[in-house]
Amino acid sequence: MTGSRPRTRIVGSGDVVRLAPCGELDIASKAELELALEAALSWADDGGSLLVELDQVRFMDCSAVGVLIRAAKAASHRGVTIELTGDEGQVARLLTLSGARRTLREVRARARGRCQAPTEAP
Description:
- By secondary structure, this protein is an alpha/beta fold.
- Helix content is 44%, strand content 30%.
- The protein has 4 helices and 5 strands.
- The longest helix has 16 residues, at 100-115.
């Protein structure tokens, strides 16, 4: 289902950054999604979070899921978490059936572990 180019909006900086793509996220828009995620992550502080708001996404395919997972893994090295919100219908089913939701949860847990301060021994 290609045809409409996605539009994205990035809001915020520091602890919480929001990325709101709109339209279809598929193989045709893969490069644009990668650039939008890279830009949004550059605004997030180490240890912060990027909320990807999917409520305006009408269609998503596995290429977009791969982009989200790769971005989450790269961000986790800085302790930045990527969280998805607003997914429903086809997008929610794809994230669940592909295992992406579970993978993103695991990456998020590792990222949170990296941003916690080490404790000193008594």
